[in-house]
Amino acid sequence: MNKSSSQAQSETATPSKNGLLNSLKARLVVSALLLILVLLPLIGFTLNDAFKQQVKSAAKNELSAYLYSVLAVTEVDNNRLLMPELLVENQFNVIQSGLYALISTPDKTQGIPAKHLLWQSNSFLASETPQHLPHPATGQSEFGEILLEGKPHIIYSFSASFEQRQNQQFPITIHIIKDQADFQLQIDKFTRQLWTWLLILMALLGIVQLAWLLWTLKPLAKFKQELNDVEQGRAMQLGADYPTELQAVARQLNTLLNTEQNQRKRYRNALSDLAHSLKTPLAVIQSQKDLSLGSFEQISVINKIIGHQLKRAQSAAGSSWHLGVKVSSVSEKLVRTLGKIYRVPEIEITESVDSEAIFKGDESDLTEILGNLLDNACKAAKSKVLLSVTSSDIQLNIAIEDDGQGVSPEQQSQIFERGIRADSYSQGHGIGLAIVRDLIDSYNGKLSVSSSEKLGGAKFEISFRWGQKNND
Description:
Among the domains are: 73-179, Beta-Lactamase; 244-314, no CATH class; 323-465, Heat Shock Protein 90, CATH 3.30.565. It is built from eight helices and 15 strands. By secondary structure, the chain is of the alpha+beta class. The protein is rod-shaped and about 155 Å long.
């Protein structure tokens, strides 16, 4: 399908680059969440690991104390190990108490095999002897883990040597073994408490961060609201009660607004003076009796152009500071008026207008845009004209279709030029579409013509993107 626009532009607009992280609020929220979700768990893992090391160190010290209490009552006489029947620590005397003492030989000694179990506490009597017991060097100790009957235990081993007659040595290794259950219970309890408090802390920090965020962004929210008030025509300037960082911005914007308003006033006055100074000579020329019909029509066209440019100077086109008008209210008036004008032949004008669609500009400009296009469509149509309007927060789309002969591809590239008129229009001076194009351009809009798929005639499409230019 062939299409042409007011400046031979393509249909596709440059996609918006606005993303989530382009929002200052989103950046602050993401930063706060990352701080909470990364830093606090990291602290939790660090504290948990530190507590495990502390428990491990405490367990080592506990087993070391037990070992030295056993070593204190250990005697060797004539290469025989002598141990008391009961130990001071009662857990060594209770079967399956979870605390065990073993003594073995690290090396082959006086006919005793290496790594042979010499003695075990009463608490170990019903247990299986471990397959591999550590045997550190004499005078050294070793702390680690061992499986005992399929359960994890911690073991602390220390090697010593007893001197016998004729400088003979009797080396032994004392092993203290304890069930890990008690230590693991401490770790599990601490871990649960730690993560419970960390979760509570994360929730509290989240609430504090939210309150801090709202308090920090409150001036920006106020700044945005005041900008919106200026845009909607409820205020002329921004306030001055802002933090230091925003005061300069507000002051510069107010200066810009004042300058823009003064320039527009001077522009309006200059064009108004020019229009009025031209109208009188034109009226004198037009009153001449010997004026030809062609000259009279051209002077009428000049008057119309002067009136149009005067209205443009008085309107707010080209500026984003508009209260805005509802498209439906303007379109309904135009449809009623055109319905009376084009009663014969019968023309059916159908509206499909978004009731919330807003034109952020001057009502007279919208009236002229829709009026010209609807008038042309009624002239070209056989019986049907369709007006469709859709909108979003940043865009307004208008389409006007008819069931006439349409606009040929050759005319589509020329129809927006001044003085050019489609053959299907039986009336007009050819400046209507040029005026429409100028008005749409002044709002950075886009105008294109194509063939209507619904009605078969011409289809004129207009799009406005508020807050940015249509980059085609």
